[in-house]
Amino acid sequence: MTLTENLFENLRLELRRGCLTLAVLAELRQEYYGYTLRKALAERGLEIDESTLYPLLRRLEAQGLLTSEWREEDKRNKRFYRLSTDGEQMFGQLLGEWQAINASISNIL
Amino acid sequence: MELLDRYLEAVKKHLPWQRQDDIIAELRANLESQLEEKEAALGRPLTTGEAEDWLRQMGPPIHVAARYQPQRYLIGPALFPFYLYVLKMTFFWATVIWTIVAVLQIAAQTPSELTVLATVLRLPGMLMTTAAWVTLIFAIIEFAAARCPGKFPMLAPPSANWSPGDLPPLGQQLAGGKKPHSFAHAVAEVIFGFLFLVWWLLVPRHPYLLIGPGVLYWHASPFQLAPFSVLFYWWVVVVNVVQLAWRSADLIRGSWPRPRTAQTIVVSAVGLIPLGLLLSVPDHAYVLLRNPALDQAHYGAALNSINLSIHWSAVVICAFTVLGLVWEIGRMSLNAYRKRTAAMR
């Protein structure tokens, strides 16, 4: 990887990081377990690595933005996540912020 | 699938023990769902090569496990600038104290090449130990602040208390239109100051470093230095240690471009002490005859001539130093006056 490619990759990851959190919070307004959430995001055009998504779910849960429960589905125990009450509030705030940034960037461009 | 079990076992090893079973159970459920879907799409189980490719995409187990850990720092970005500042200051003061102690130790013994070299070589070890202690203390502060945020306000970086008024003046605004010293100049001064000091400390043991082959003539000559020379020698060491310490401090604090009026005044004032010592020697007896009873008649005139030369050289150097000192004090007073009148406008 050249220096420019490396720099682009770092900046791209930095740009995506916050957006991924917003996308995950948005998608978890309905209940999913890890793998189906990843598929749902991919179907909407947002691919996320397993090694990024699954730890992110844990982190958001530890921050009180998600709730989870173990439940059996298709003869297998799975951990289902959804947005908590605090998470809904935070999601609303973050969405407002994202829309404002988006509008500003559009104006600048 | 055995490969998946091995992979999960490898991830588990790097997870915190309190949460590893829970995380692995969740990871297994997700990966098995994915595997099932892949195999259903292919209509057959994955081959070993396909399974390896699939798990390779997940990343090395240690990286996957690391993502489940909170981001950890030995010293975080908020504390790091203060850590670096304290480390620099500690290095500086440790070097100053070490230099003073080393000079005194060498003075207590007979200075030799080996004792000076051994003392200089102890410096890196001492600095590494100092750095280790400073790092350990800051790591503890970081750990305490991260574990109990807000509970140790005294440990928080003092970023909220800074005042723009405390900022150093711009280097380009030196009085009298003088150019500020460059970084390279400041580094060179410290390096050459240190080398001079080492050289000067070696001179008593190896006088050829000062007068070269003339040392043979000196040993064979009927002359010897008066006892006051030992005191004069150590005052020269003191003057150079003070100057070197000050310049090193300027370098470490990043203040080398600033005017050095105060430094010049202090060093000149300290430098006057050995000069005053030279001038106060009774009868200007800087050099004596080894055997006066035998050599007075033959070498008495030459001796007087040598001592007078030294005396008048000292008078001239002393006069220039005093003039320089008066000039610097006058310049400093003038600058202070200008600043005061500018502030009153």
Keywords for this entry:
heterodimer, A: 109 residues, alpha+beta, Arc Repressor Mutant, subunit A, 3-stranded antiparallel β-sheet, 3 strands, B: 345 residues, mainly alpha, 3 domains, two-stranded antiparallel ribbon
Question: Overview of this structure, please?
Answer:
The complex is a heterodimer of chains A (109) and B (345). By secondary structure, chain A is an alpha+beta fold. Helix content of chain A is 66%, strand content 17%. Chain A contains four helices and three strands. Chain A has helices at 3-27, 34-43, 50-62, 85-108, and strands spanning 32-33, 66-73, 76-83. Chain A has a three-stranded antiparallel β-sheet. In chain A, α1 (3-27) packs across α4. The two termini of chain A are 29 Å apart. Chain B is mainly alpha-helical. In chain B, 71% of the residues lie in helices and 2% in strands. Chain B has helices at residues 2-13, 20-42, 48-58, 61-66, 80-108, 113-147, 183-202, 208-211, 214-220, 228-253, 261-279, 292-344, and strands at residues 223-225, 287-289. A two-stranded antiparallel sheet of chain B has the order 1-2. Chain B is elongated, with a radius of gyration of 34 Å. Chain B starts with a helix and ends with a helix. The mean pLDDT of chain B is 81. Chains A and B meet through α2, α3 and β3 of A and α2 of B.
Task: Furnish the topology, listing elements before pairings.
The complex is a heterodimer of chains A (109) and B (345).
Chain A: H1 3-27, E1 32-33, H2 34-43, H3 50-62, E2 66-73, E3 76-83, H4 85-108
Antiparallel strand pairs in A: 1-3, 2-3
Helix pairs in contact in A: 1-4
Chain B: H1 2-13, H2 20-42, H3 48-58, H4 61-66, H5 80-108, H6 113-147, H7 183-202, H8 208-211, H9 214-220, E1 223-225, H10 228-253, H11 261-279, E2 287-289, H12 292-344
Helix pairs in contact in B: 1-2, 5-6, 5-10, 7-10, 10-11, 11-12
The strand order across the widest sheet of chain A is 1-3-2
The name CATH uses for the topology of chain A is Arc Repressor Mutant, subunit A
Shape of chain A: globular
How many helices of chain B? 12
CATH level-4 homologous superfamily of chain A: Winged helix-like DNA-binding domain superfamily/Winged helix DNA-binding domain
Helix content of chain B: over 70%
